[in-house]
Write a structure and sequence with these properties.
Elements lengths: L13 E5 L16 E2 L2 E2 H8 L6 E4 L10 E3 L8 H11 L10 E6 L7 H13 L7 E5 L1 H8 L14 H4 L17 E5 L5 E9 H15 L8 H5 L3 E5 L13 H11 L5 H13 L7 H14 L4 H15 L4 H26 L1 H4 L10
Parallel strand pairs: 1-4, 1-6, 4-5, 8-10
Antiparallel strand pairs: 2-3, 6-9, 7-10, 8-9
Helix pairs in contact: 10-11, 10-12, 11-12
Amino acid sequence: MNENAVRGPAPAYDAVVLAGGAARRLGGADKPGVRVGGRALLDRVLTACAGARDTVVVAAPRATARPVTWAREDPPGGGPLAALDAGVRALPPRGHGAAETVVVLSADLPFLTPRTVRLLLDTLHAGPAEGAGAVRAGSAEDAEAVHAGPAGDAPAEGAGAADARSVEGAEATHAPPAKGAEAVLLTDRDGRDQPLVAVYRRAALDRALRALAAEHGALEGLPLRLLTRALRLARVADPEDPVASFDCDTWDDIAEARTRIREHGRVLEEWISAAKDELGLDLDVDTGALLDLARDAAHGVARPAAPLTTFLVGYAAAQAGGGREAVAAATAKAVALAERWAREAESAAAPEDSAAGDSAPGAE
């Protein structure tokens, strides 16, 4: 399956991924590096936003599946709002190659896919009245009442804190869609806003961050709800993937994610994605066609022919220059061979019935 195959070209965007939290509920473990389905959580999120022009990860540098720019809030551990500001500042300046839209994500979202990122982008750029999915929006004033919490309630874990990601009690309003939304937030299965699974207009984000810094003197320790209060928000749920906002804050969450990854409906896709990352492949192929080929080789030749044939198809595609088209061409040749092989087996069983159709083209 091609997760990027969603209606036409995606709107241009940059991405900021917050990956510098203290992970206290994981005992201080390196949460972005924890593996789910064989891949680091951070790499899974970077795959989901691989369409970004520029990607900034706010954390100490590490090896990642694709190149990124690194940034750090000052001081480190200053909270999600300070980390977001550091990430935005590390992007190209507006008017100098920057996209007008910024996707903001936490680094612990094992089930986030490019399709959900595209849903957020389409909702913002189409306008809430036309955006994909079930948009529920209200003005910043509507959101303020449900976002409000105890005064000075700072997040517990710094960048990527769960308190910042899932604003407690923040139910999406059911007002008519707001015009001119400055941000679109994904809502989780309980209808709560996820400001770190969201897309923001760069101009509005820059303005709100500057205003908060001027008002409070610094952004260190400030909760993300101050940012969302300052913006006109739209909200969207993802009915096709209700676990897109599932985040891993505890070891129980990690265990649940590892179990879900291996569910029948997604295990093959997850394995292929992990294998491509491990092998350094940036390639989208028709998985169904390759599975059909493997089945035909196993049934029409012998079971060991299935993996060997698909390996040879990949090798032939690489020699032809690689890419989706090369894989498709090699697959078609191997499928035709498997069909000829099967016909020969049938003719061996009943030579009189099938002799007429077994000659090579042009043979007399």
